Amino acid sequence: MSITLEKFAAESILFDFDCTDNLALDETIVGSPVMSYFPVMTGADALTFGAPVVNTTQIRYADGKLGKVGGVVQVRISGGTSSNATTPRLYSVLATFTTSTGNTLVARMKLSILSNQ
């Protein structure tokens, strides 16, 4: 799965990786997902992740879609910088996780960091 979301550099936002469509009906995410991103940056350019969690209740999104129990990785992301005042910087954020059937899957989100100016 791959989507593109945006945040301003100063924001700290809880993002959802809805993996429902990538899981079998009886398959769920187990354990703790591992977060990563590229390009890898340092200092103010680096992204910071909170502890990722897997949802324990069904999630209803604004578009009416349902995220099944055990099918959504939720993680707070902060940091990052735009390339300059008018050009966002694009990061690829990955959530790697294991499922109840023994599969290892990777969900990807493109995250565009906008200038605070």
Layout of secondary structure:
Layout: E1 2-8, E2 12-18, E3 29-38, E4 47-49, E5 53-54, E6 59-60, E7 66-67, E8 72-79, E9 89-99, E10 104-114
Parallel strand pairs: 1-10
Antiparallel strand pairs: 2-8, 3-9, 4-8, 5-8, 6-7, 9-10
How would you describe this protein?
- It contains no helices and 10 strands.
- The protein has strands spanning 2-8, 12-18, 29-38, 47-49, 53-54, 59-60, 66-67, 72-79, 89-99, 104-114.
- Strands 1-10-9-3 form a 4-stranded mixed beta sheet, with no helix packed on it. Strands 2, 4, 5 and 8 form a 4-stranded antiparallel beta sheet that branches.
- The radius of gyration is 15 Å and the shape is elongated.
- The N and C termini lie far apart (31 Å).
Largest sheet: 4 strands, mixed
CATH class: Mainly Beta
Estimate the mean pLDDT confidence: 94
Q: In order across it, which strands form the biggest sheet?
A: 1-10-9-3
Order of helices and strands: EEEEEEEEEE
What is the count of helical runs?
A: 0
Instruction: Report Rg.
Output: 15 Å
- The dominant shape is elongated
Label this structure with key terms:
117 residues, mainly beta, Immunoglobulin-like, four-stranded mixed sheet, four-stranded antiparallel sheet, 0% helix, elongated
Describe this structure in a few short sentences.
With 117 residues, this protein is mostly beta strands. The chain has strands spanning 2-8, 12-18, 29-38, 47-49, 53-54, 59-60, 66-67, 72-79, 89-99, 104-114. The mean pLDDT is 94.
